[in-house]
Each structure stands twice: as structure tokens, then as C-alpha cells.
Amino acid sequence: MGMAMLGRVLPAIERFRIRRRLRALQKEYYQAPQKNDTLILQYFRELQRARSLVTRGPSGPCLHLGCEDYHIEGWINVDIINSPAVDLQADLSQPLPFSSGSIDFIHSEDLLEHLERDAGHNLLAECFRVLRPGGVMRLLTPDLGRLVANIYLHPRARHLAWCGAYLGAQTPCEALNMHCRMGGEHRFVYDYPYLKDVLTGIGFRVHRVSWNRSRFPRLRYLDLRDFGLNLFLEAAKP
User: Fold this and answer.
1) How many domains does the chain have?
2) The model's pTM
3) What's residue 5's pLDDT?
């Protein structure tokens, strides 16, 4: 095997190992009887390792909206909270403090559902405004359709066990309500047809994607959660 081929194979093998490790950490977190911050930090580190193996090429500014304590190196990490992970404090229910057409990529996970419906629509329109033509937003948010199917209509034992441990919910009715409300933190939960209609109405071209996979190297290995209850979308500005 030539050195050039070896240089391509080794990162691929390492990425496979990292993905397997990420899945193991997710499973451990999901089955833990209580929140485990050590597992979360390990997961952050594994994502960083995976990103270091991806050839990304040149890129302009990238926004990570609603970052909380999750800092993505090389991105502008934005949230309203005061955290070491935050590069820019901003209220994301208000217009984004960036020029039109100035951003290459946006990543947002578990933010949209924390905004009232109209504020969420306004944020998505703002994301369209600040993206350059050809720019892409990666968007993750709970999937109302999957929540209803897998927690209420046909409840899965692993989901109900997690809801009992983390949300104090003992029945499908309680579990669905807690997922949709999260103690008042969730304001509006989307399903795929509705969210796609909102995004296409703004002007985006929308594609469903999967956990930590993207045709854009810059958008790989960013995602935290994949419990089978989330939407994974990429929305491109023509």
C-alpha cells in the first residue's frame, strides 16, 4: 500500500472507531440513571477528534447558534447565556447581529423548540438573510411526529425509562407532555412537514440528513443527540 493510500485509509479507520465510540457514549448516557457530565465531556472530546480528521477546505465565518456549554472550535458560538463556551452573547429571538450574506455555515441543535412559533420563524428568516448564496444551515430539533409515535402511541421501553430517570415521567401521557414542555422551556415543537414548509417558504432548499453526516465537510461531527426522536435537516440558500 502506497503512502498516499495509507494516509487516506488511516483517518477513515480512526473516524470509524470514533463513531463507534460516540455511539457507545450515547448508549451509556441514555441508560444512565441520572445525568452524567463526565460522559458529556467525553462526547465533546470525541467529536473534536473526529472533526480534526476531516479535510474541510477554506471557509468563511460559521455560526453555532444556541451553543450553551458546547464550544465548536473555529466557529462563532452564540447564546444568550454567560458561559466560557460562548463567543458572542445575543438574544436569538431578535435580529442576528451579522451582515446580510456574510456567513458560510450555521449549525443549531435543540434551540428552535425553545422559541415561540413566530420568534422561531423569524430566526429562520434571519439565518437565510445572513447566509451567503450557497450557504447552508444544519438544523436539529425534536420531531413531534416521532415523539407521538415512539413515546405515546407505541411507547418504547428505553424512551420511557429515560423519561422516568430524567423527567420524572412514569406514563406515556406524562412523557409526551414533558418532552413537548420540558418544564416550560419548550415553546413550539415541529414535525418535518411543517418545518419543511416554513423553511421552503423562506426560500431554503431543504434536505433530511442523518446524525453527524453531511455532504459538506464543515458540517460533519457537530451533532450531540441522536435518540431517534429528532429531526436532522440541512437547509441551503440558493
Assistant:
1) 2
2) 0.90
3) 38
